[in-house]
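Section 3.1: Structural characterization of target chains.
Under the original work plan, the team committed to producing a structural model for every single-chain target entering the pipeline before any wet-lab resources were allocated. The record below documents one such target. The sequence was received from the expression subgroup and is listed exactly as submitted; it comprises 406 residues.
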Amino acid sequence: MNTTTQTFTSRARSILDGLRERGEFKFLQTVDGPMDATVRLRSPDGTSREALCFCSNNYLGLANHPEVIEAGVKGLRDYGGGTASVRFICGTFTPHHEIEERIARFLGVEASYTFVSAWTANEAVFPTLCEPQDAIISDALNHACIIDSIRLASVIKKGVSRFVYKNNDLAELEAKLEEAKKATAPGNGVIWVVTDGVFSMEGSIADLPKMRTLCDRFGAMLVVDDSHGTGVMGRTGRGTHEHYDMPGKSVDIYTGTLGKALGGAAGGYVAGSREVIDLLIQRGRPTLFSNALPVTVACSASKAIEILDREPQRVQKLRDNVAYARKIIRAAGFDVLESPTAICPIIVHETAKAIAMSKRLLDLGVYVIGFGYPVVPEGHARLRVQISAAHEPSHIDGLVAALRRL
């Protein structure tokens, strides 16, 4: 072991020891079966146990739906186990076109394009679409992939101006738009405003109507990552824009995931105008240099959207479950943030406390994750309870019974 290796090893051990001492060390749980309202967890000793699952993004309960499974299996039989290439070489298969057309219709926009994850979809947006004379304005609580996309754009396209406004603070957004207007090249620069539709740690939602009004006033593009809103928000699950009765084209660019409500597998997408999508196809590094979305996932996610279209009652069941869960969690004496989304954060403040509570809940047969720093700011640790249409009232009663025992 050379000196550099020793230095790194010592540093890594020090960081890991500190996490253990503070009770902040995260342990990976192994799920030994399909994702559903309950899951079977495998222990390191090889034994397994059943637990109520309240930490999954499987919002519509489609991850274990028979039709979704069969669509993926058929895709495997028809097209094989992998694409073995990037999209522009020989990695574009018929199911890619099918799901991209379906996503575009679902959102009410011209076109869409898939990536291996929502992270890489977001990573492609700003480094590809921005130019040095542009400005990007971001909500302070945007997901890490959006933040990293903006950082990457500022490195690749030197000269891009960056601004951050407080979460959902539209007065501050307006002020940042004023600054951005001065920072961009007149007649050539573009101002981009980017936000999560649903903020994953808070369960709160962006005020898209007022943001659209501000963007129109300042001539800015509105970009929305609706990964936690698609399938959840709006009467038919179209997303946060439908929650506000806004047409699909009221948002300039959507990014989202196939790994949550839409089958729970993997993959992400960008959707918007044909020009946006064509530019990403031609210049987006995450698609030019990374294999295509597996065809099995394209098939299963496409089936999930089909099911959502024909069974909008799943969205209503999810909404009913969320209302019931918030009501009885609050009645049990816990501080749960109010929201119309499927994310119910129970604030406990200290990271070590959140992790300890999560471990105790698992002992009681309930799988909920404690989140602390650096995922959320210091002092804002929480248990993030996530509700699904797969849950029945008895499952939610079981969750609250365990919370009461805490």
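Residues 69 and 291 are 22 Å apart (CA to CA).
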